[in-house]
Amino acid sequence: MSAHRTVVVTGAAGGIGSEIVDRFLAAGDTVVASDQRSFHRDQTPADLVGAILFLASDGAGFLTGQTLNVDGGLHFL
């Protein structure tokens, strides 16, 4: 925390499909193929809820300048 008690943290999703995103993709394309993730399934908005709630909680009170990757293991592969 800075002198002004500013905390900067973020959650980084690994590509979540939605109606808005689908408008920009070619037919048959996906945001990230599920076989590119360790969990081998598509990511949903619900997958972010726990991580974002943690980052907004007192439990994350000593974190700052961090990015929590919520991508089903995509960055490991």
From TrEMBL:
SUPFAM superfamilies: NAD(P)-binding Rossmann-fold domains (SSF51735)
Keyword annotations of the record: Oxidoreductase
Regions that span the bilayer: none
Superkingdom in the source lineage: Bacteria
Protein name: Enoyl-ACP reductase-like protein
Organism: Pseudosporangium ferrugineum
Gene Ontology molecular function: oxidoreductase activity
PANTHER family: OXIDOREDUCTASE, SHORT-CHAIN DEHYDROGENASE/REDUCTASE FAMILY (AFU_ORTHOLOGUE AFUA_5G02870) (PTHR43639), SHORT-CHAIN DEHYDROGENASE_REDUCTASE FAMILY PROTEIN (PTHR43639:SF1)
InterPro entries linked: NAD(P)-bd_dom_sf (IPR036291), SDR_fam (IPR002347)
Family note: Belongs to the short-chain dehydrogenases/reductases (SDR) family.
